[in-house]
Hints:
By secondary structure, this protein is an alpha/beta fold. It has one domain (about 10-210): Rossmann fold. The protein has six helices and ten strands; from the N terminus they run αββααβαβββαββββα. Helix 4 (about 90-100) links the parallel strand 3 (about 80-85) and strand 4 (about 105-110). Helix 3 (about 55-70) crosses helix 4 (about 90-100).
Amino acid sequence: MTTLKPTVDAAARRAIAARTEALFRSSGALREGHFSLKSGRHSDAYLEKFQVLQDPAATSELCGFWAAAHRDADGAADVDLVAGPTTGGVMLAFETGRQLGTRAIFAEEVAADGGPARREFRRGFEIAKGERVLLVDDILTTGGSLLAMIPAVEAMGGEIVECAVIVDRSGGMTTLTSPATGRVYPLRALWSLELPTYEPGAATCPRCAEGTTAIKPGSSGTGVAPK
């Protein structure tokens, strides 16, 4: 299996990206249509990650790239636990933790009165001061889910080693800055994909201009597979 070490060469990174893309395409996860994303922006293409994550073998392989990147020369994990946001980040955290032999936890979204949603570790989950944490998530668009998790880890005294995602569709975001402390954390993606997004409205979104209705992905189960 191709591994993803911090010093991995460009050829190995390309091989991992190509394999990740192949898994998404073969599962039908890359869809075309008119979509309203969680960020509020519109897109004419969407990654339905659960078409990939429903396959345990594919999920295990993708998490294996992260696990390989966080083992030392003796095979021991260089992190103490893996954490992810609900929903997709739950299974990714637990599978990566399983492969590394570490604990795995998840943070849930909590509505905030008059402010942006935040993330909390509930259900008795704890992070000890100084524990090394790997944050994982599925698709990065604006980074909102991970950015909301970072203060929750910091508040417990955890040390974030890295933020890792399967697909980066942000257009080049390479770091994540804590909204609470201003600390900058490295971001690693298995596959970077350019999928333009648009502000809603006929003047800015081509699909809105066509008069088609935007679908909220995951809510209707609809979507058109790419030709």
